[in-house]
Amino acid sequence: MTAREWQFIVILIINLIVTEVYLILNIFRNEDNNGSCWIRALVMLMCPVTGVFIFFVSYIAFRLFFHREVDLSDVVFNKERVKAYMHADEDRERNLVSVEEAMEITDKDNLRVLMLNVLRGDIWKSLSTIAMAMNSEDSETAHYAASILQSSLDEFRTKVQKDYLYMQDEENEDEIPVYAHELIEYMDQVLKQRVLTGVEQKNQIDIMENICEMLYEKEPEGMTAEEFEAISLRLLELSEYERCEKWCDRSVKHHPDALSTYTCRLKLYFSMEDRETFFRILEELRNSNISVDQETLEMIRVFS
User: Fold this and answer.
1) I need a surface site. Which of 37, 38, 39, 302 has the fewest CB within 10 A?
2) Is the pLDDT at 67 greater than 60, yes or no?
3) So what's the pLDDT on residue 101?
4) How many CB atoms lie under 10 A from the CB of residue 229?
5) Percent of the chain, pLDDT > 70?
6) What is the pTM of this model?
7) What contacts 209, CB < 8 A, 6 or more positions away?
8) If you write DSSP's letter for every residue of 204-261 in order, what string do you get?
9) Nearest to 127 by CA among 102, 151, 104
10) Residue-level pLDDT at 289
11) d(C-alpha 204, C-alpha 206), whole Å
12) How confident is residue 161, by pLDDT bands cut at 50, 70 and 90?
């Protein structure tokens, strides 16, 4: 063999050794990068010297001209939750209608599917919708809605009566706050949907007020602004203005900086047609540092 042929064979052997060393190092360092090192090794094997030279030059060029240190000065590595705000899907929103509207226009098959979807959710928040379905022209849908509503209301009555009697027992006096908080929220969720008859609705609101009274006597500071709002609005629905005003005044005393303390009084004095007190409270709200939500703004526009 000539000297040039020997030189070529030596170059191939050296290239093969370099390729094998490259592969072994990447495999042991676990830097496969989805098989990219195998592709580089194949190029180095098929293009002796040239392949190695190309990769070497590209690496040097990257380090000199393109590589930059990552700026982490604005990155916070902690476990605090971040609330992400997503834009509304306007196309999807245009195709949505309320359940009540859908019940008026949909056919029987779709109406039954709609009812099943409602029942898959939280039934206690959909009682008013289920009650509306009782008036459906589809007898099967109406019968199913009536059965579900009756079953839910029976469960409601049983729980209220059982827990209320338990709270009235003197032996359970220390447990009154625990039961009261749970029962007020539970009752308000049903009563505000107005699915009971007029007389029963009034009786249940009376029971709810008694429970609130028991809680207030036990620990007045423990009543939340939401609980004051709940009993105030339920009494306002009955036009029990004096009783409603009593709870509004208590809310002012214990939660003066709560938005519900102002909105309940605004609704009360508007219903009583007491314009002077209404606008006085409205001015107090405007001068306060309380953030007003969209619902309150709409209410003020309507009432004013």
Assistant:
1) 302
2) no
3) 54
4) 22
5) 73
6) 0.62
7) 231, 234, 235, 243
8) HHHHHHHHHHHHHHH-GGG--HHHHHHHHHHHHHTT-HHHHHHHHHHHHHH-TT-HHH
9) 151
10) 87
11) 5
12) very high
Rounded-to-integer distance, Cα 225 and Cα 217, Å: 16
What pLDDT score was predicted for residue 75?
Answer: 47
Q: Is the pLDDT of residue 133 over 80?
A: no
Based on its alpha-carbon atoms, the radius of gyration of the chain, rounded to whole angstroms, reads 36
Enumerate residues 6+ apart whose C-beta is below 8 A from 284.
Answer: 262
- How far is Cα 206 from Cα 222, in angstroms, rounded to an integer? 21
Q: What is the DSSP letter of 99?
A: H
Residue 50 and residue 12 in contact, taking contact as beta carbons nearer than 8 Å: no
What's the CA dihedral at 240, 241, 245, 247 to 10 degrees? 10
Helices (H) and strands (E) in the chain, counts: 15, 0
80 CB-side CA count, 13 A: 6
